[in-house]
Write a structure and sequence with these properties.
The chain has 17 helices and 22 strands. The chain has about 475 residues and is of the alpha/beta class. It comes from Marinobacterium marinum. Its EC number is 1.2.1.85. GO terms for molecular function: oxidoreductase activity, acting on the aldehyde or oxo group of donors, NAD or NADP as acceptor. This is 2-hydroxymuconic semialdehyde dehydrogenase.
Length: about 475
């Protein structure tokens, strides 16, 4: 059994109150270990350590030295790959085959990608005329924003946490991370790596706990926090916005989604099926960019639906270490209750259950885990709650459409605007439709293809701000203009 303590000022510390909560494995609901819950004392200590580190050895490093140090962090994660893999799979239950190709290597790569991208980005400079004819020179200069609060989610715990911590540290900030209470392991383990790589104490801090009246609230309301970056559901994002308004702290938020997939009759249907399968069912559907609404042009609707059902039937449920398994449990029994509620609601709303729709019998050893069946529905109205509300599970509704204009209207008819996937071999149509989608990311003939140099974020209720590449500079630094009279 493992114990998960806070990581504050370079040391692992227990909660002064002695309060802990259980971290359980979603595969079989077995106890992984106790997690210390942070109170105001621990959060204050972490924030003050981060504040102090801003003027310590960390601030004396050159950009090249910071880059070299963060590259060491990436290398050390990969050297301890098996430990991170075990921790991630215990917390999430996801198959090792998935976590070993996505979560761990891409989580490590975030440190290198962002430190090297941001290190080489120029600022602006302008020469201006003055009445005396001698002129002036304006030079842009970026400085770290300060203490960054990182609130990270449970679906891709290491990857999405380092997607924020990587650029924050590359820009010279310090961080206090609150990982999801469901998945504390890899964020906690990263503290060891930071120490091993010589990252100064206080630069990277971790506090565990929940949201209201716990670590999340205490962190986002702390007056010494300069900015807050968050990934999670929209309702939590709204609470964080209210907290950030006190003191006018900057925020970057990637929130919920109800993402559409649009499949035109001229697509390569096998590519469209493969891509839509991944977008709806990879990571048990627990991907913010995943597809829950699929619109298929009527001439190929029946064929596409048939192929999707064939592929869903091939999904292999099993333990993370099962080499044949490509489908794990949901992250927790609580989340399974939420997803199962929508499965039952779909029946009530008149859905045709094409495949799945319930809880599988996994046998005596696994039936206490958070397992649920991958599910496809048809026949729901466009106003059904299952069509309009984010489920965040392994499910999708497939609906036919007749015209381009119709499907654009249907796809945009949502409060969310995170991502979409468009499947067509007509390049003019691809561009035309993508330009009209009210989203932050539009994929054409692909899904989850991410260049870390590009902007990442959502429209409408799916988020505020953009991260990724140089766009992170706008959030993680303050840009000042230095005007020099010549």
């Amino acid at each position: 059994m493992k114990e998960f303590k806070h990581f504050i000022n370079g040391e692992y510390v227990a909660s002064a109150s002695g309060k802990t909560f259980e971290n359980r494995c979603p595969v079989d609901n077995s106890l992984i270990g106790p997690v210390h819950e942070a109170g105001e004392v621990e959060v204050d200590a972490a924030v003050r350590a981060a504040k102090a580190a801003l003027s310590g050895p960390w601030s004396k490093l050159t950009q090249a030295q910071r880059t070299e140090m963060l590259n060491k962090v990436a290398d050390r994660i990969n050297e301890r790959f098996d430990e991170f893999l075990e921790a991630e799979c215990l917390d999430t239950g996801k198959p090792r085959s998935i976590a070993s190709h996505i979560d761990i290597p891409r989580g490590a790569a975030n440190f290198k990608a962002f430190s090297e991208t941001l290190a080489n980005h120029p600022t602006e400079g302008f020469r201006m005329d003055t009445p005396d004819g001698k002129g002036a020179l304006n030079v842009g200069h970026r400085t770290p924003k300060g203490v960054i609060a990182v609130i990270s989610p449970w679906n891709l715990p290491l990857l999405l946490m380092t997607f924020k911590v990587g650029p924050a540290l590359a820009c010279g900030n310090t961080v206090v991370v609150k990982p999801s209470e469901e998945t504390p392991a890899t964020t906690t383990l990263l503290g060891e790596v930071m120490n091993e790589c010589g990252v100064p104490a206080g630069v990277f801090n971790v506090v565990h706990g929940f949201g209201p009246n716990s670590a999340g609230e205490f962190l986002t309301t702390h007056p010494l926090v300069n900015a807050i970056t968050f990934t999670g559901e929209t309702r939590t994002g709204e609470a964080i916005m209210r907290a950030a308004s006190v003191g006018l702290r900057n925020i970057s938020m990637e929130c919920g989604g109800k993402n559409p997939g649009i499949v035109f009759a001229d697509c390569d249907i096998e590519k469209a099926v493969e891509g839509t399968m991944r977008s709806a069912f990879v990571n048990c559907g627990q991907v913010c960019l995943g597809t829950e609404r699929v619109y298929v042009e009527r001439p190929i609707f029946e064929k596409f639906l048939s192929r999707m059902k064939e592929e869903v039937a091939k999904l292999r449920l099993g333990r993370p270490e099962d080499k044949e398994a490509n489908f794990g449990p949901l992250v927790s029994l609580e989340h399974r209750d939420k997803v199962k509620y929508y499965y039952d609601l779909a029946r009530e709303e008149g859905a045709t259950i094409e495949i799945g729709g319930g809880i599988p019998d996994m046998g005596a050893e696994l039936n206490d885990g958070a397992w649920i069946e991958p599910t496809i529905w048809t026949g729901l109205s466009d106003e059904a709650r299952v069509i309009r509300e984010e489920i965040f599970g392994p499910c999708c509704h497939i609906r036919p459409f007749d015209t381009e204009e119709e499907v654009i209207k249907l796809a945009n008819d949502t409060d969310y605007g995170l991502a979409c996937a468009i499947w067509t071999e007509n390049s003019a149509r691809a561009v035309r439709v993508a330009e009209q989608m009210e989203v932050g990311l539009a994929w054409v003939n692909s899904w989850f293809l991410r260049d870390l140099r590009t902007a990442f974020g959502g429209a409408k209720q799916s988020g505020i701000g953009r991260e990724g590449g140089v766009h992170g500079l706008e959030f993680y630094t303050e840009l000042k203009n230095i005007c020099i009279k010549l």
